[in-house]
Amino acid sequence: MRRVRVALLIVFALAGALSLAEHSALGMIKNNEAVITGRVLYAMCTNTDPEIGASCATFIRGFLEGARAAAETTKVKPFFCIPESADTNLVIIAFTREVERLPRASLDDEAGNVLANALWVGFPCTASN
After folding, report:
1. Range of the domain at 30
2. Model-level pTM?
């Protein structure tokens, strides 16, 4: 049941994000599918429009739920270690801060990859994680 919920969250996050990407013309087409880029996710997360900001938060929550579900079902060491006490707003702040340090060309990668890389830098795993 938890996997179904996570899958639905991701689908809804992507659907909302893709509709924004379609309107902004900053998405890309890959293998005949619309793909949201890191550049589009960053624009969503830094936008002052509440609806667009909510789409950013939904995408990130879906990503984090998927990452947590994957961590619970596998024994693979996590790529990033976000404290349980961190809320979505803190993760958004960390994402935007780290993205601003990345080379601009890397923002054209898929949003999930850009987000994972930013969280890897912002929330590195240590021996105590």
Report:
1. 2-122
2. 0.70
